[in-house]
Amino acid sequence: MAEAGRKLSLAAWVWVLIAGLAVFELVAHPLIRAATPSDESWEAASAFVRARYQPTDRIVAAPSWADPIVRSHLGDLLSLRMAAPSHLAGIDRVWELSIRGASTRDEPPALEEDFAGVRVRMWPVSTDDVLYDFVEEVEHAEVELVAGDGSKFCPWVSARPAPGGLGRGPMTPKERFVCDSRRPWLWVGATVMPDLELRPRRCIWQHPAGTEPVRVTFLDAPLGERLVIRGGIDYNGERRRNHGPVTLRVWIDDRLAGELVHHDGDGWSGIDIDTSELALERAEVRFETTAQDPTARLFCWSASTLQGAGEE
Known about the structure:
By secondary structure, the chain is α+β, with helices and mostly antiparallel strands. Helix content is 21%, strand content 38%. The chain contains 5 helices and 18 strands.
């Protein structure tokens, strides 16, 4: 009899719990809907930004998971460089579309409007002038695979692209330098890579082949006051932190100008090289990647020559 009483008591509590969840859903549902902006709110906010947008503007979402919603409304305005920048150079204003009080910046905006739950804010930013973007100009480079005492030039080809994806690295572009068809990862070209924080980065894929370098040479690049270089490894290759470093060496007119050694865990990082004292308007700039063990070293980098000293 006592056992039956305990079972009845347990069953009663289960029904109380179920009833409580039902009541919670009834109360929470309108609150959740109220906290979620409508399509009309997103459309009004997007129209406000679109009417004021300039080509040197960048558009961001807050929180970051709202980015697909922003892209669905304003994606036609977002070039790959603006959607996945390596730094802020060359950007004059930042537009932010945010919900639920999230923000990407701490300082007060120059412009702010609210559209029934979607907040639009804009900040002017003081950045450097970009003289030369190496990612945009990669097609005009020379690429070599060094082996022993010689080297082999890698041809620029139009080949079948690969979609990339989870565990497979970033997308392989249709047009790229192919250094060894037997090693499908040994190519050089522009792509978009998720860094350690899953932020997209527009960059040059230059997977090392080993201790002998993969070499990318820009024969006549304009120089400014700084050469800014950023690089990292694809999220899936870096997050495990179980492989060795990648070294990127930078040469200006056959002089070693800088070296970036990237370890797993560094994320999207880099170096700035002062070129103001070289007294050169243009120069040959060479980038070489090496690794003691090239396994899963899905390395990608970006670089620009800049004039000025603005915001990074």
